[in-house]
Design a protein that fits this description.
Blueprint (H helix, E strand, L loop, with lengths): L2 E14 L2 E19 L2 E8 L8 E9 L2 E6 L6 H9 L9
Antiparallel strand pairs: 1-2, 2-3, 3-4, 4-5
């Protein structure tokens, strides 16, 4: 089970099918990952400057044992979320 919080500084881009809506470098974000069930966890990340008013995302993570098999909530699972999971012993190869 993983329950962790980390801070990172990233360049972020918000885009949809119409194109790029916002872009910002050097954004400090807080990433929270909480696992309440053996096969499911949730994640969220938000900018620390505005408490998530400027940048916020959340989603779900599904596992089979220690393998991450699916996610939802964002178009692409951030590398930082994958790195946190891998440090905790999860296999995320299918999500890279």
């Amino acid at each position: 089970m993983i329950n962790t919080t980390e801070k990172h500084t990233l360049g972020l881009t918000l885009e949809n099918s119409f194109g790029v809506l916002a872009k910002q470098d050097g954004v400090e974000i807080e990433i929270n990952i909480r696992q309440n069930k053996k096969d499911y966890a949730s994640f969220e990340f938000y900018d620390t400057e505005t408490g998530g008013e400027a940048w916020y995302a959340e989603g779900g993570l599904w596992f089979e044992g220690k393998e991450l098999t699916d996610y939802d909530g964002v178009f692409e699972l951030p590398t930082e979320v994958i790195n946190i999971l891998e440090k905790a012993g999860y296999d995320c190869d299918e999500m890279k």
